[in-house]
Amino acid sequence: MKTQISKFRQSLLAIVLIMSAAFSMAQEKIAVLNIHTNVPGYTSETMGNLVRTQLIKNSDFAVVDRWDLNTIITEKKINPDCNNTMCLTEIGKIIGVDKMLSGSVEVYGRNSIMISMRIIDVKTGVPVNSNVIEYIYNINEIPAMIEVSILDILRKPVDPDTKRKLTDKNDFASSRNSRSSRLNASGPRIGLTYLTGSQADRFSAPLQEGGFDGYPAMFQFGYQFEVQYLNEGSFQALFEFVPMITGLDQGRFIPSFTLMNGLRNNRSGWEFAFGPTILLNQMADGYYVDGNWHLASEWDYDSIPENPNFIYSRLDSRGSYTLTSGFVFAFGKTFKSGNLNIPVNLYVIPSKEGMRFGASFGYNSRNR
Fold first, then answer.
1. Please, what sign has the CA dihedral across residues 79, 132, 29, 58?
2. Angle at which helices 44-58 and 66-76 pack, to 10 degrees?
3. 307: which residues sit within 8 A by CB, 6+ positions away?
4. How far apart are CA 246 and CA 79, in angstroms?
5. Per-residue pLDDT, 306
6. 10 Å Cβ neighbour count for 211?
7. Using CB atoms within 10 A of its CB, is residue 266 exposed (0-12), middle (13-18) or buried (19+)?
8. Where in the chain do CATH 3.40.50.10070 domains reside?
9. Model confidence over 216-236: pLDDT tens digits?
10. Distance of CA 134 to the CA centre of its chain
11. What fold is seen in the domain 179-365?
12. Which residues lie across from 120 on neighbouring strands?
């Protein structure tokens, strides 16, 4: 019984060896020399190595290893940059292969990358397969482009989504702004605002004069809610809602909310937004006499029924709470540290009473 099992194993081993030898004899050999390129960061040699690696990975050819090829090139004094059909045919005969693969990977005006390839039959000296594919300019995707071109010239199926993202500009731009990688800067906000012009004067004035006896720089805190309603390429269109509380550091409670539309570059983090801001301020009606401010209620209507002075409303600590409005222009950048987003923004609110400047920062965890 043991003898029969031993003979069976020997027979099976012999069959495997015979089949392996037959497969090796049937498997065509192919070689890849240097691939001409002008892509930044690549040489013809490194591009040739990349093409060779993708050919080994995706083909049924017996690809000549680069170390063996380097030895043959040195011994036979072969020009590794040879790229014409006649030269490649002669080198293929010297190396002892059935096919030679050559081509080029070239950048055109930083707009596209053109990859051309051809497979030459060494015996006949005639190209048997060739292709030319234009890709989007993105050097980081060179390995993926090489793989697509290799599969195409071997007449093997290529994933249509992968090829489209590498060749279609619109699809490629959208793929760089996938939903999972879109930046969302919603989160708490802490900042400082600074008043100028008559606004600053009124805030600094004594209480008895209708001022607030304060300093025209106040801290703020609040929260930013945002929604991205358009995402195209690297850009997002945003709607932002920012409620804030200002002046608590000086014993003041000044609530406000801001609505803004804006654009953000999802990759760099730079953004610009603008929109209305609504504040709850103490306002009073009054008038000026010889440069001095008086409340409208101070006029003696019993003596003179009509006040000849122009009456208008302005910031005054003796007035009633009133909703006032302004228009915000803001810009900023979101810095990233691991999964942490840190948005930093500057803004300005123009007004005839003076400009109002501010800065804020926040934080949140990146949504991945």
1. positive
2. 130
3. 287, 296, 299, 301
4. 74
5. 81
6. 18
7. buried
8. 11-175
9. 999 999 999 999 888 776 788
10. 23
11. Porin (2.40.160)
12. 100, 127
CB-count burial class (<10 Å; 0-12, 13-18, 19+) for 149: buried
Say how many C-beta atoms besides its own lie within 10 A of residue 216's C-beta.
18
CATH 2.40.160.20 maps onto the chain at 179-365
| CB contact set of 7 (below 8 Å; sequence gap of 6+) | none
308 CB neighbour count, 10 Å cutoff: 7
Tokens 């051809």 appear where?
Answer: 118
| SS3 call for 188 | strand
**Helix (DSSP H) and strand (DSSP E) numbers for the chain:** 8, 17
What span, in angstroms and rounded, lies between the C-alpha atoms of 360 and 215? 19
The token pair that represents 72 in the structure block? 């043959």
- Side-chain-facing half-sphere of 124: CA atoms under 13 Å: 6
Q: Among the CATH numbers 3.40.50.1360, 3.40.1120.10, 3.90.1150.10, 3.40.50.10070, which is that of 11-175?
A: 3.40.50.10070
Instruction: Indicate the SS3 state at residue 289.
Output: strand
Per residue, the 3-state secondary structure of 166-182, as one string, reads HHCHHHHHHHCCCHHHC
The yes-or-no verdict on residue 10 having pLDDT over 70 is no
**Residues counted in the chain:** 368
Q: What is the pLDDT of residues 357-368, one digit of tens each?
A: 999 999 988 654
Nearest to residue 331, comparing CAs of 351, 367, 355, 357? 357
Rounded-to-integer distance, Cα 298 and Cα 105, Å? 84
- Exposed, middle or buried: residue 345 (CB in 10 Å: 0-12, 13-18, 19+)? buried
What is the average per-residue pLDDT within 147-176?
83
Residue 216 · residue 195 · CB < 8 Å: yes
* CA 349 – CA 356 distance, rounded (Å): 5
